[in-house]
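$ fold --in a.seq
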Amino acid sequence: MRREREMLDLIVDTARRDDRIRAVIMNGSRADPASPRDFFQDFDIVYVVTDVDALKRVPCWIDRFGELMILQKPDDMSPPPEHQDGRYAYLMQFADGNRIDLTLFPAARAAHLAQDSQTMVLLDKDGILPTFPPPSDLDYLPRPPSAKDFADCCNEFWWVSPYVAKGLWRRQVTYAKAMAEAIREQLMKMLSWHVGVKTEFRRGPGKFGKHLEACLEPELWVRLLRTYSDADYDHTWEALLEMGDLFRTVAVQVGGHFGYEYPSADDRRVSAHLRHVRALPRDAAEMY
């Protein structure tokens, strides 16, 4: 597997040799010196170029980066991309384990590059790039919730929970699992605020909560693990009820910290409904 220095030299040397490439930016965790390093990290690269279409017309130019395991060109896939700023991406997974997510961005729009705290300039031939602050994880830290943020998160969690119960009673496990992931999204949001409160919002749980084990109290981490189940119906019921218990524990703490009211009545009514649906016989003709 090629080392980081070798990959960065290849990325920058490619830009130096091609007059169409005027600047190179690296985003993501590799740009942040405080981020832990491992061999799975992507190289998130932006080439600021004079002519995106000219490079697209000769796709073999990316061969110099190495033997591909698989390539994805998301801007050519359906549905079409939402952005309309002329960018074009090559997502390249190489046979040696390295990965480059390379975006071509029009030089004419360089001033409109999105600001990202994990940004490092590797090359700027013409001085066309805006000034970026020293890279950090600032944009990826949780932000304190407003009262509305907190209320909306609680409402969505308890509103969707009965959908999980409906799917379980109907023996529609794929539906139930999909709805469970919808409430998990709210649970993870609440957990991120909990971590923020603990660390004065100087630390985050990472994408999809990948750092939660290191951030949460051991008891909460164990409880979070219990919210993941296999496709067994009883296990999924237990995971659903555990999600509710964990959400309540953390939300009460977060709400108390900020002086926000936790919707205890909603929680009580919905939790009772979930237990009722679980106990309903399979041949029930009415819910109540």
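$ fold --in b.seq
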Amino acid sequence: MPNPPPTLTPAERFADILWYLAQAVVTRSAFGLSQPLIVLIITRIRDAKQAFARLAARIQAGTYAPRRRASTPPRPPAVQKPRPPPNPLLRKFGWLMPLVPGAVVFGGHLENLLRDPEMAALLAAAPVSLRRPIRSLCWMLRVEPPKILARPARPAKPRTPRPPRPRREPLPPYRPPTPPEAPAWMQNWPPSRTRWFSRTRTRSPPRTV
């Protein structure tokens, strides 16, 4: 009776998926895929494979420890170099599918691997460190990443309070200028609009017999 095939670990299954995916990308050179684009895709796959293999080995050996940021005084702002513009190809969810139609098979294998309990335990041991390589592959193969690898929500920027609006002073009542040669009884005539309006509102109507 032949011996049963050995059970592969999640790290070995992950490496096999990426190896066959890289081979599928290389074969697309015969179908018009440019050499610089193939190098870009292979580099991304290789970086994710190596980063996952290193972290998985440290987790299984019990030597993994999450990094702790030391409380150091803030550094003075340095002159930042302008970043190159992002590749518009890599900004689309599942951008590898139109270039390599057979990649949909490896996306299904990756999705099944992420649902494996052993793989879930491996991700839970180092979610921050494994977030970048796993999310990069999920974005490439149109696979929803596990919730444990979700990016932390950015804190909302505090809103600066608006200064209070200045209170407008009421306009003085309109009064047309009185010529200086007018008699004394015309100096205060006509009365202001506010005063005349209040008198007309409070005056009682005439009585009818």
